[in-house]
């Protein structure tokens, strides 16, 4: 649990901005699942800079995870830099070479001479198989180094090679290095409808009284993540404390997103969903359809941005639009009920609001939004919210409100 773990990402394209560096975040999440964490992350260009970065990181780390630089070109120097920094001879691994040769033979392609360097391995290190590419990974146990005892993992850069290799080869070795119990790790819980400060005031003091429990928060617009790190007993005590206060606000446990939770809930209950959106412009439907299997649930997504669309597509009475305005309880209810009738779905959610920066008034300032949910055989529900943030944040937070409203209706919970 107290291991100093660093990640070095290599690749000039990561610093030029032409390729998004997502490896550090992904590895950080995998480490947190084991109750471990990244102490430092460094990104360096290909070439000689890799040697200095690895030498410095190895000196101060218990574990170093390196991504990239295992290719066949002259600027792929990760193997060489690791061997040099640890004082280990670099040798050609015969089995690794045969695997690389077979990779090309199976594809009917000749192997270039440059690919031969991908079989180079620090003497005594373990070769990590790569069924998805030509670059095998490398694990250098801490006992091999001539200086500070540091375990080093060399992993390929392409995500389709890196992620499967990490999952297959890294976690069990880290668990052994850190003397982790098999059940030790992290429990992640997601909440919505509660601010970070209110959440903190409600449970933080109680959580800190649980022996051996480490907690962490991550707040984003419309959502709060809680990490419980420690033994299984400590995590379960923390979980019970939180659910005693905020069970209704808990979206999921284990990292599932709100949209995934909604799709699963409706699927389990055999319910069909329709959406009628104005100010969110289809964002709610987009989030739902990002979930595999959403086609079982979502029947219709109406983007009725103009008043005429609300009237002609959903049947919102013209009188409602003229007397109450598009952003009103009456129109939101009519949108939800219209979507329910037109689609034939079991549940329909509607949203209408003022995203800004213009269009507001003293009575209805920018950030005003009305959300309504209609369900067959039940009374239509509507409520008002005020989210006076920038347009992009407004849309995201409001989409969160809509999805959470569907979740609450499916679970027979009161709306926010």
TrEMBL record:
Domain of life: Bacteria
Stored CDD domains: cinA (cd00885)
Gene3D superfamilies reported in the protein's UniProt record: CinA-like (3.90.950.20), MoaB/Mog-like domain (3.40.980.10)
Pfam families on file: CinA, MoCF_biosynth
Domain MoaB/Mog: start-end pairs: 6-176
Family: Belongs to the CinA family.
Annotated PANTHER family: NICOTINAMIDE-NUCLEOTIDE AMIDOHYDROLASE PNCC, NMN AMIDOHYDROLASE-LIKE PROTEIN YFAY
Name of the molecule in the record: CinA-like protein
Organism, scientific name: Rubritalea halochordaticola
Gene label: pncC
């Amino acid at each position: 649990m107290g291991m100093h773990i660093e990640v070095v990402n290599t690749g000039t394209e990561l610093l030029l901005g032409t390729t998004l560096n997502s490896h550090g975040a992904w590895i950080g999440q995998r480490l947190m699942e084991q109750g471990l964490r990244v102490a430092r992350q460094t990104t360096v260009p290909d070439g000689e800079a890799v040697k200095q970065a690895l030498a410095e990181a190895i000196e101060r780390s218990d574990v170093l995870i390196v991504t990239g630089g295992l290719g066949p070109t002259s600027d792929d120097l990760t193997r060489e830099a690791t061997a040099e920094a640890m004082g280990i001879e670099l040798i050609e691994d015969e089995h690794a070479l045969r695997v690389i040769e077979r990779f090309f033979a199976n594809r009917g392609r000749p192997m270039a001479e440059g690919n031969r360097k991908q079989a180079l391995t620090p003497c005594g290190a373990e070769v990590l198989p790569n069924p998805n590419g030509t670059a095998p990974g490398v694990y250098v146990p801490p006992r091999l180094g001539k200086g500070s005892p540091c375990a080093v993992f060399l992993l390929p850069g392409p995500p389709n090679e890196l992620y499967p290799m990490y999952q297959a080869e890294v976690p069990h070795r880290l668990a052994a290095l850190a003397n982790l119990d098999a059940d030790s790790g992290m429990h992640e819980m997601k909440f919505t409808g509660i601010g970070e400060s209110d959440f903190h005031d409600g449970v933080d003091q109680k959580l800190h009284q649980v022996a051996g429990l480490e907690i962490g928060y991550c707040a984003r617009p419309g959502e709060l993540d809680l990490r419980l790190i420690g033994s299984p007993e400590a995590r379960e005590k923390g979980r019970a404390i939180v659910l005693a206060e905020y069970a209704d606000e808990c979206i999921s446990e284990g990292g599932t997103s709100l949209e995934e939770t909604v799709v699963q809930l409706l699927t389990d209950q055999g319910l069909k969903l329709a959406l009628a959106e104005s100010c969110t412009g289809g964002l709610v439907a987009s989030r739902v359809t990002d979930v595999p299997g959403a086609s079982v649930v979502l029947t219709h997504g109406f983007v009725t941005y103009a008043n005429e669309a609300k009237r002609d597509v959903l049947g919102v009475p013209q009188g409602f639009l003229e007397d109450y305005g598009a952003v009103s309880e009456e129109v939101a209810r009519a949108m939800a009920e219209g979507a329910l009738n037109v689609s034939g779905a079991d549940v329909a959610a509607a949203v209408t609001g003022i995203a800004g920066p213009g269009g507001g008034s003293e009575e209805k300032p920018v950030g005003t939004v009305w959300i309504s949910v209609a369900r067959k055989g039940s009374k239509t529900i509507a409520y008002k919210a005020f989210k006076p943030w920038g347009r992009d944040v407004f849309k995201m937070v409001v989409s969160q409100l809509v999805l959470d409203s569907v979740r609450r209706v499916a679970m027979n919970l009161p709306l926010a």
